[in-house]
Amino acid sequence: MRPFELTAPATVADALEESGTFLAGGTTLVDLMKLDVLTPQRVLDINGLPLHGIDTADGLRIGALERMADIAAHPGVYPVISRALLLSASQQIRTMASIGGNLLQRTRCTYFRDVTMPCNRRDPGSGCPAISGANRMHAVLGTSDACVATHASDLAVALVALDAELRLAGPEGERTIKLTDFYRLPGETPEVEHDLRPGELITEVVVPRLDWAARSTYVKVRDRQSYEFALCSAAVAVDVRDGLVADARVAVGGVATVPWRLEAVEAALRGKPVTEESFTEAASIATEGAKPLADNGFKLSLLPRTIVRALLEVTEGSR
């Protein structure tokens, strides 16, 4: 780790006036600084800022500095969010990591984290060795010739499914953006991963009220049961009425370069009976547009099976 200056602004306004890299839980930033992937000259410790609180009075509002473990344990949080958090990382990391930091975490692609290797996200124009190299964990959806790295956050998948928004504060004032619009596909500029502008700070996560999201879950398929990133995951919420799917939300992770909302699958579920057969038929279109690599073609069959598993889990008792 290289030398850096550390300061602790007392207010949001102070933080926005200073120049540097924001530090919250540090569970991503410190790791990458140790690897020399990130080498900030100045780090701003924002843990003293008033960006806390969980409000479930009408929908869900979460301060950006709330810790993952506290959110998961809160009784008013939608099940899909709690489960996504509890299946993330380890208890120690969940106790430290902030929700804002979780949404901004960088890819776990081994080429990105190895500074001796080329990587277009870390060094634009240097190449993407994962395309022809070790790519079992990489994306099959939303990829480009410049990058095939998956997005790492479980929480982001659940929030995308629920139409969450981010409140941002920056030098030009405050703004709100939908999480689905916040993340950017790699295209020819994979180093631009999101729409956070220079000097901006996530202040709050807002999830609109969705009463039937009480019937929701998050299924994560991985190589081991703890402290492992997803090979494939599915966040689902289902509104069941008279044995039919009145509405549904489906988003997936571990298979795409961004948290991947499957609106076509949602549309295919609406009006259909709550059966494994109808779930399987709807999930079969989840891989449209997928581009598998040499080692990750198994995700084309794993993805629909994971969606069906999540749908069966969340509708148990309604079939």
TrEMBL record:
Q: Which GO terms describe its molecular function?
A: FAD binding; oxidoreductase activity
Q: What keywords were assigned to this record? A: Oxidoreductase
Please provide an example of a Pfam family that matches this protein in its UniProt record: FAD_binding_5
Family annotation (InterPro entries): CO_DH_flav_C, CO_DH_flav_C_dom_sf, Diverse_Substr_Oxidored, FAD-bd_PCMH, FAD-bd_PCMH-like_sf, FAD-bd_PCMH_sub1, FAD-bd_PCMH_sub2, Mopterin_DH_FAD-bd
FAD-binding PCMH-type domain segment(s): 1-212
Highest taxon above the source species: Bacteria
Keyword Oxidoreductase assigned to the entry: answer is yes
Protein's UniProt keywords contain Oxidoreductase: yes
PANTHER family the record matches: OXIDOREDUCTASE, XANTHINE DEHYDROGENASE SUBUNIT C-RELATED
The protein depicted here goes by the name: Xanthine dehydrogenase family protein subunit M
Organism of this sequence? Amycolatopsis rhizosphaerae
The organism that produces this protein has a lineage beginning with: Bacteria, Bacillati, Actinomycetota, Actinomycetes, Pseudonocardiales
